[in-house]
Amino acid sequence: MSETTPGATEQTVVSSSIFDFRNKIADLARPNLFQVGLAFPSIIDDGGVGTGATPDSQEDVAQSEAGASQTGTVAATELVTFLVKAANIPASTIGVIEVPYRGRTLKIAGDRTFEPWTITVLNDRDFALRAKFESWSTKIQNLQQNKQEPSTIADYQASGVVYQLDRRQAHVRAYEFQGIWPSNISAIDLAWDSNDTVQEYTVEFQVQYWTYSNNENMPNSVPDADS
Fold it and tell me: Does pTM top 0.90 for this prediction?
């Protein structure tokens, strides 16, 4: 009995037309059809803004006012949906343990690690989202002093999600990132000759782990901060 290989039957190459290819694949995922959701931790929405300055000082008041930029009638979580112009689905890597045996190496599975999650954000006029991210970061590690405001690790971690959409705008798959916190908020480049463009920046989140789902009936919502 002869072995068969993909695309071959009894060592005979299967010839397919472009329509066979079309009918087999049905459709392909598009990188520009996605939606991002982000749940800010409760320490960001408790009315206080992290500054690290001496309480009630002029510097503390100025930073608090800057960090409390208003989003108007639009919630920050909703702004995320519209202003995040790019994101990614991070890699997850399983480590390799090499065990030598009589001149050969047996490779067995090690531990899993998760890469950071990065989003690119369009900067709104009021710096509303930027202020949220900066306040989040400042409460984790103050600007002027080497301290943090949250009493526990869980207090400054949240969750995010990337929904993959199809051409009919239905959710076909989702990746939810758990225990995230911003480790890097990139610079915003300014220049007099930067015409016909808008400000944007990236935020890199550390991820404890992520999970996936292909529930097509997934609701249009952002994850809970405590999930």
Answer: no
